[in-house]
Design goal:
15 helices, binds ligand FNR, two-stranded antiparallel sheet
Amino acid sequence: MESAGRSLRAVRPLFEMNEPQTPLSPLSHIPANVFCAQDYEFLAQRFIAAPSFAYIAGGSAHDVTLAANREAFAELSIVPRLLRDVTHGHTRLELLGQPMPHPVLLAPVAFQTLAHPRGELDTARGAAAMEACVVSSTLSSYPLEDIARTGGPARWFQLYLQPDREITLDLLRRAEAAGYRAIVVTLDAAVQRPSLRALRAGFQMPPHCTPANLQGYPVPEAAPGAGQSPVFQGLMRAAPTQDDLAWLLEQTILPVLVKGVLHPDDARALQTMGVAGLVISNHGGRALDGAPATLRMLPAIRAAVGDGYPLLLDGGIRSGTDIFKAIAQGADAVMIGRLQVYALSVAGALGVAHMLRLLREELEACMAMAGCATLADIRQASLIPQREEPSC
Ligand code: FNR
């Protein structure tokens, strides 16, 4: 009995109840103890309420894909090269005809007032300071027009196709009028399992976090009939179809990208439909839990769509070397999701700009050490799997 009692006490609880802890107010300076972009992830835990942090950090369900995204980067090594002249080096690129000084965009992330009272407005200001393109979410906590006014000229709008095409069209026209330069249609989130991490932390969306862009539109009716599946006859009845996407492509002269692509056949089909580019994404591990890491699917998708077709990748990028690896595997550019929110929570616009600067500096250092003067050179760079015999 005695030993059984001891071992029972030694068992850790299934999950730790978060102790109530008041989050710190955002700083108006860059903290001295941030040495790399990922440091913001650790610091953010003191600046974001614990349930909200669990919601942001978590993936869907058991976090299998969330972990896989990071593991895929760890499984590749970059082979350094010597005596290469990179003194003319730069990180410039052109994406969809738009010049960019570096290949790092900010991914659409909903409800950023969870992390900072000025939310997306400060994110847009921080991105502008680093000339980074912001992809603004349909579910932002500030209206897309306000975000456009606050940020720089490099902005794309992420569109969730609405069950009512008139609402979709209105969102599209508003984005066009506000000067967004591309539309990113996210297709992988019609069904999302909740994050177990967020559920266990007791997360509920606070009343001040609402989808500002959707205010004033009628709320769609998605309830299934009696005895029907809430998934098949509920959520999926309202989900976008191929016809919806084809219709959207006819409504705008802006380039339309699709986000959430993981299968090479889907990539080819979307390319054939006239989609201008793809974001290889599993929603940062928040869509199908068990989906593969984005980095693992990238080479097959690049092979399917060929060179010259715009491919972006997101999911698990935490450093400049991760960006290098994504480009080496076939991406033209990358998008940063959670890190932007973490940096935002710690130091607002300054934090976002600083995080982007750290990533860019790391990318440049990595390029120099790998003998790459341009992003095109990275595509030829040598990556080897961590655990296999090198073939170079
Ligand atoms: C997201 N993501 C997302 N994607 C999208 O298309 N529209 C959205 O509104 C959101 N909202 C959102 C909220 C939160 C809290 C997170 C963490 C993510 C997914 C996002 O664009 C991106 O795909 C991932 O975040 C990339 O992975 P990392 O960089 O967070 O690892």
